[in-house]
Specification:
Blueprint (H helix, E strand, L loop, with lengths): L18 H15 L6 E7 L5 E7 L2 E3 L2 E7 L3 H8 L2 E8 L4 E11 L2 H10 L2 H9 L9 H14 L12 E15 L7 E7 L5 E6 L2
Antiparallel strand pairs: 1-2, 1-5, 3-4, 4-7, 5-6, 6-7, 7-8, 8-9
């Protein structure tokens, strides 16, 4: 018989009052079992008319402050965020039969954080940040390749490629985090953390 925690959930949920610590526990397990990109997450945004968009991004950091990803600040997602600074995230790890959903507000990371991450990237990725006008229409693929060649000429030193001012990171500061575990015959287990005004978290069980 599977061991249960005090809420009657599988022991993988633990007894943690802090959802960030539970996220870290599940994320570390996913890194062992997912073949590709355990940090891949579906990011949902909406524009000022409320029209939603969702796409996969890569999580590049997390802490008590939130969940961080990086992108072009002129991209569709960034335009959405500027118009409507609310977002949702969904991690789905098939190897573990687990899912985590996050809802929160978005704010930009500091220049220092953005510079540190940008400078940790491969040379080609840093050049790509300059060369790609993300989400804009390409007349043809050569337009992108020529832009890459041009910026490689401009920045030939692999250790000296500055971060473009239109490339940075966003931080999703969570208000709600839900942990989901697959079960037989729709008997899924769901634990939701809701942030209270004092920044502590309330735990509730949800019906599958």
């Amino acid at each position: 018989m599977n061991q249960k925690n005090s809420l009657g959930l599988d022991k993988c949920f633990g007894e943690l009052d802090d959802p960030i610590k539970l996220f870290e526990k599940w994320f570390n397990e996913a890194k062992k079992t997912e073949l590709n990109d355990p940090n891949a997450v579906a990011l949902g945004t909406a524009d000022k008319q409320g029209v939603p968009s969702v796409r996969m991004v890569l999580l590049k950091g997390f802490s008590d402050k939130g969940f961080v990803f990086y992108t072009n600040l002129n991209s569709k997602k960034s335009l959405d965020i500027n118009a409507n600074p609310n977002a949702s995230m969904c991690f789905h790890w098939k190897s573990l039969l687990r899912q985590i959903r996050i809802v929160g507000n978005i704010n930009s990371v500091s220049d220092k954080e953005a510079d540190e991450y940008y400078n940790s990237r491969a040379y080609g990725s840093r050049i790509g940040a300059w060369a790609s006008k993300q989400s804009s229409i390409l007349n043809n693929r050569d337009e992108l390749y020529n832009s890459i060649i041009s910026y490689k000429k401009k920045f030939p030193e692999t250790n000296n490629v500055p971060r473009p001012n239109y490339w940075s990171g966003w931080n999703v500061s969570p208000n709600e985090i839900e942990f989901w575990l697959d079960g037989e015959c729709q008997d899924h287990q769901r634990l939701k953390y809701i942030k209270k005004k004092n920044n502590n978290w309330k735990k509730v069980l949800l019906s599958p």
